[in-house]
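Schema walk-through. Below, the input block comes first and the output block second. Nothing else is stored per chain. Lengths vary across the set, and this one has 124 residues.
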Amino acid sequence: QVQLVESGGGLVQAGDSLRLSCAASGRTFSSYVMGWFRQAPGKAREFVAGIRWSIGTTYYADSVKGRFTMSRENAKNTVYLQMNSLKPEDTAVYYCAAKQGSFNLAIGSTYDYWGQGTQVTVSS
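--- output ---
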């Protein structure tokens, strides 16, 4: 139905920046949600950011507000996560997710499609 492919992860120093990309292919939706989640080994998956695709409104976890920015490029069916002022606690596998509808952006279990993940490692 929908395939999501993340890219852009890597190893950086604290204070550095990275931009993650998530390209979606498959069914075209006029209204859906895309989100970024992250998970470190042995830890629970947590919400990072989400966007209501058609209107472009965004929502962020408190831990990344002011540092991370989510955006979209409609023509390419791609969302981005610009990560600035990275901290060691940001180290995780970052996943892109998508679903139809506009509710419960921060609840991972409500998402229908997931990418393979991209590793972000921030050294101190």
